[in-house]
Structures are given as structure tokens and as C-alpha cells.
Design brief:
5-stranded antiparallel beta sheet
């Protein structure tokens, strides 16, 4: 498990294949808490003006899972690297070990303004 605590200026995080140039700017946060375009996913979190978020990234199930499952999807990962970042890339983490496709799940503490986020990444077939 790796984690960070950060104020996320635009109130969203992006999870994507490191080689992806997919555009997630069509996301409408008023109609959906997340959006996927190709090998990129954008999802809402608490805005930085409301305080920092605590984000954990797991490769196996966390011992205590947050109560709200935002999504669970298959994400293409042709490069073998995944990147989790905010739009300005002030907060940025990179992960290796995923070639092909990854099952990505995001769980949060609050469906409207998440201040705690768990990202679970599993290589497909595991």
C-alpha cells in the first residue's frame, strides 16, 4: 500500500495508463462521479478549498474497505505503468506491474465530497 495526503485543487483525480493521451475533459461531474475514456479515468474527490484528501492505493484488498464503491472497471494498460494524479500533477504517483488490463476499483468515505479514497488495482486474471 502507498498513500498520500494532499489538497486537490480541482476536486478530481485521474488514473491512466502512463502512455495514454485519452481526453477526459468531456466529464461532467454534475451528472456522474466518474468518467472513462479509453485507458484514462477521472473521478471526483473533495476540492482543496475544503481540505486535503487521504488517498491509499492497494494491490490487494485493504483490511478495512471504505463504505462507498464509486466504480469497478477494466482499464487497458498497454505500457505496463499506471499513473494517478491531479489535473495539475501536484500530486502524482506511478505504479508498475500491470501489463494488458487492470481491474480498478475506487472506494470512498462520502459519495458527494470524498476526503478518504481507496484505489484497488488488480491485474486481470488474478
Amino acid at each position: 500500500m502507498v498513500a498520500f495526503l494532499a489538497k486537490i485543487e480541482h476536486g478530481c483525480l485521474i488514473l491512466r495508463d502512463a502512455g495514454s493521451d485519452d481526453d477526459v475533459s468531456d466529464w461532467d461531474p454534475a451528472s456522474s462521479s466518474w468518467y472513462q475514456e479509453g485507458s484514462s479515468i477521472i473521478f471526483g474527490v473533495q476540492a482543496g478549498v475544503d481540505g486535503p484528501i487521504e488517498c491509499e492505493v492497494w494491490k490487494s484488498a485493504p483490511p478495512v474497505v471504505l463504505p462507498v464503491n464509486v466504480f469497478e472497471v477494466s482499464l487497458p494498460c498497454p505500457s505496463g505503468w499506471l499513473v494517478l494524479h491531479d489535473p495539475n500533477e501536484y500530486a502524482r504517483m506511478q505504479f508498475t506491474g500491470f501489463r494488458g488490463a487492470v481491474t480498478c476499483s475506487v472506494m470512498v468515505d462520502d459519495p458527494q465530497f470524498p476526503s478518504k479514497v481507496q484505489v484497488l488495482l488488480r491485474a486481470e486474471g488474478e
